[in-house]
Amino acid sequence: MSSPTKAPHVRFYNDDDGTEISVTKLKVVLPDSQSFVIEAQPGRDGSVVFLIPGANPEDKQFSQFIIEPGACNLFSVKVASTSKRPVE
């Protein structure tokens, strides 16, 4: 009998005292006011979903993740807005 798959979860904690709370979503706001959301819903193969909110097909720009490797155990995440090219 296979063991049940554990649902992903997001924990927010205070580094000073280790206090933790469970949340279903965590919104990260970057210094340039761009933001993304980490959702506690299953992704592919047990992964966690990262989402840039507010994607609208009518917008003149779209946002995309920029992921930069730092070391074998860390990476940096930014959100960049790019203008859409007009369809010719």
Notes on the protein architecture:
- The chain has 88 residues and is mostly beta strands.
- The protein has strands at 10-13, 20-23, 25-29, 35-42, 48-51, 61-71, 74-83.
- It has one domain (10-83).
- The model has no long low-confidence stretch (mean pLDDT 79).
Beta-strand proportion? over 45%
Mean pLDDT: 79
| Count of folded domains | 1
Strand order of the largest sheet: 3-4-5
Secondary-structure element sequence? EEEEEEE
CA radius of gyration is 17 Å
List the total number of helices: 0
Shape: globular
Determine the structural class based on helices, strands and strand pairing.
Answer: mainly beta
Report helical residue fraction.
under 10%
SSE topology sketch:
Elements: E1 10-13, E2 20-23, E3 25-29, E4 35-42, E5 48-51, E6 61-71, E7 74-83
Please summarize what this structure is.
Helices cover 0% and strands 52% of the residues. It has no helices and seven strands.
Which properties best describe this structure?
single chain, two-stranded antiparallel sheet, 3-stranded antiparallel beta sheet, globular, mainly beta, 88 residues
